[in-house]
Each structure stands twice: as structure tokens, then as C-alpha cells.
Specification:
This protein has 4 helices and no strands. The chain has 75 residues and is mainly alpha-helical. Keywords: Membrane, Transmembrane, Transmembrane helix.
Length: 75
């Protein structure tokens, strides 16, 4: 990945939009990808069991995942 605002970061952000953590995985950040996937997936899972109340936490986490992929500055 080239840097912030590069085409690679845009692709990573789009990947994270569809599957949380996938953008970080595309960027080679395995630990971040696993953590985002676990926490966002658990949040959506809990939200589905609590009639959507937990969406207050799940949606901002997913947006953070997308923004993190888009604004990543590589080495």
C-alpha cells in the first residue's frame, strides 16, 4: 500500500464495508483484521439477539473499521 488516499486504501475501505476487517487484511495488518472482525461480528450478533439495541455499538465500530482502512499510512 502506498499511503493515505491511495487507490489501495480506497479498495481496502470498500472491502471493509462489505466484510469488517477484510480491508486491514488486504493491507497486511493481520492482527487488526482479526480484532475488527471479531468485535464487529460479535456486536452485530448481539444486536440481532437484543432487537437491534446493540446497533448503537456495532455501527460505529464498523464505521471505524472502514475509516481505519481508508486512512492507513503504510511504512
Amino acid at each position: 500500500m502506498s499511503g493515505q488516499g491511495s487507490a489501495g486504501n480506497v479498495i481496502a475501505a470498500i472491502c471493509s464495508f462489505f466484510i469488517c476487517g477484510l480491508g486491514q487484511l488486504v493491507q497486511g495488518r493481520i492482527l487488526a483484521a482479526i480484532m475488527f472482525f471479531i468485535f464487529v461480528s460479535l456486536s452485530y450478533g448481539i444486536a440481532s439477539m437484543t432487537l437491534g439495541i446493540f446497533l448503537i455499538i456495532a455501527v460505529p465500530l464498523h464505521i471505524w473499521c472502514i475509516v481505519d482502512a481508508a486512512l492507513y499510512k503504510g511504512n
